[in-house]
Amino acid sequence: MERRPLTVTIVGAGSTRTPALIGSLVNYRERFPLKKLILFDIDKSRIDVQEDYIRLTMQKYCPDVELIFTDDEDKAYIGMDYAFVQMRVGGFEMRSHDEKIPLKYGLVGQETCGPGGFAYGMRSIKPMIHMVNKIREFAPDAWILNYTNPAAIVGLALSKVFPHDDKILNMCDQPYSMIKSFAKILEVDMYDIEPRYFGLNHFGWFTKLYNSKTGEDLLPKLKNYLLDHEFKPFNAEQRDQSWLDTYKNVNRMMEFFPEYLPNTYLQYYFFADDIAKASNPEFTRAEEAKRGREKQVLDICKQAREQGSLEGVPLLIGEVHGNMMVEVAESIAFDLKKVFVIMGVNKGRDIIPNMPEDAFVEVAGELSKDGAKLYPYGEIKTFYKGLMENQHAYEKLTVEACLESNYQKALEALTLNRAVTKPEKARAVLDDLMEVNKDYWNLK
Ligand code: NAD
Ligand code: G6P
Ligand code: MN
């Protein structure tokens, strides 16, 4: 298939993940050629500080690509083939609240799980719906590749509001990131590992890791290794202390439930109390990421801006998030049918027959010019079904609470969430979150 150069819009381009995504686009420029790159963010100041670095990098490696930096959504989607969406509604300030308010009640403080994920979901849903409507006005046939979190809730909401739009895809890079680490341990190329997986987003399990060259399932070998070796991330983006602690909890989860290999995010449900107790309410992941990734990226951008050149300035590469985004788009654009862990609706109960048909499940599947083809997983066992049905009910009530501004449904959602469970705490944390989020959402 001829690789026609494409027009991509990055939505939320002020993210400090963008320079590394540009590096991935540069590295993949032959495989995924660009015609035009539009960088859109509602907060122009966040793109402004990165603009020179991005312009200089693109001039050096992809001089023919037209660049547009804009905060005008009426200019963002014209002629667009792909949207790479990575917005954080409320920015880091609200992320910090998502993580800290639950800790006041002894509850897990995390941006995508527990009450923090709930609050973030409530903020993300409506701007995401607005964005899809805008995109469809200007680019009716474009692919919308969404990474905005909490992807479980955003994806479920979009599937309800746009049930016939098959060109919206919600993706998470954590399975991809974990596969990178598995590959290092197993001494194979990560692209030779073909996973089987089931769950909901940030709530799932690897069940097989096929070596696509030999057909061997490498999961037993990996499980064996993890019996007496600490699980460590082989992902430069996940080496801060909180991530090292997170990976170790995979070993701990497997001491109880050794059958499959759990996604790191399950730690927030199995070890909620311990994690809340060990958290520092003055310094959560928001500060860690700000002082780490954000500072490193902004310093590099500043150097390029002040010098007006790239001399001594490294090329940032998104070895997980950025690479995956480009590989996902490449597989669709050029009909490669590559296998990823993908989210989608359990329509007709085709994917997991013993889960509800509106569940937004996550399983292995392939990406082609026709979009996502999720591989049917089959029935899941009672333990996992129980956990997932509970989590699905939480997600569904959260989406309904947001779309209907319904306080009671929000209270039910939070009470169901395994990181909360007590109605007293659910109510207290809900009231507190609602107050802090009053510019974004309100419930009656
Ligand atoms: P960030 O805060 O650094 O950047 C997000 C940007 O989005 C900001 O510049 C902000 O101004 C912008 N924004 C906010 N609302 C917007 C809107 N309505 N339209 C356009 N832009 C808007 O955030 P980050 O930490 O880099 O993360 C970006 C997003 O990607 C988050 O949702 C994060 O959770 C998500 N993420 C997802 C995955 C995944 O696996 N799915 C991986 C990494 C990050
Ligand atoms: C992984 C998850 C994402 C999440 C990110 C947080 O990549 O899959 O959903 O947004 O981690 O990373 P951060 O460095 O911002 O804490
Ligand atoms: Mn994710």
Question: Would you mind describing this structure in some detail?
Answer:
By secondary structure, the protein is of the alpha/beta class. The chain is 48% helix and 16% strand. The chain binds nicotinamide-adenine-dinucleotide, 6-O-phosphono-alpha-D-glucopyranose and manganese (II) ion. 6-O-phosphono-alpha-D-glucopyranose is lined by residues 112, 149, 172-174, 177, 285, 289. Manganese (II) ion (MN) binds next to loops.
Query: Which class do the helix and strand fractions yield?
Result: alpha/beta
| Number of DSSP helical runs | 16
Sheet with the most strands?
6 strands, parallel
Give the amount of beta strand, in percent: 15-25%
Poorly predicted runs are none
Quaternary structure classification: single chain
Radius of gyration: 21 Å
Distance between the amino and carboxyl termini? 53 Å
Element pattern in H and E: EHEHEHEHHEHEHEEHHEHHHHEEEHHH
Helix fraction, binned, reads 40-55%
How would the blueprint of this fold be written?
Layout lengths: L5 E6 L6 H10 L6 E7 L3 H18 L4 E5 L2 H4 L5 E4 L5 H14 L9 H25 L4 E4 L4 H11 L6 E3 L3 H13 L6 E8 L2 E9 L7 H10 L12 H16 L4 E2 L4 H4 L1 H7 L6 H23 L13 H13 L4 E8 L14 E9 L2 E4 L7 H23 L2 H10 L6 H14 L8
Parallel strand pairs: 1-2, 1-4, 2-3, 4-5, 5-6
Antiparallel strand pairs: 7-8, 8-9, 10-11, 11-12
Helix pairs in contact: 1-2, 1-13, 2-12, 4-5, 4-12, 4-16, 5-6, 5-14, 6-14, 14-15, 15-16
The protein binds nicotinamide-adenine-dinucleotide, 6-O-phosphono-alpha-D-glucopyranose and manganese (II) ion.
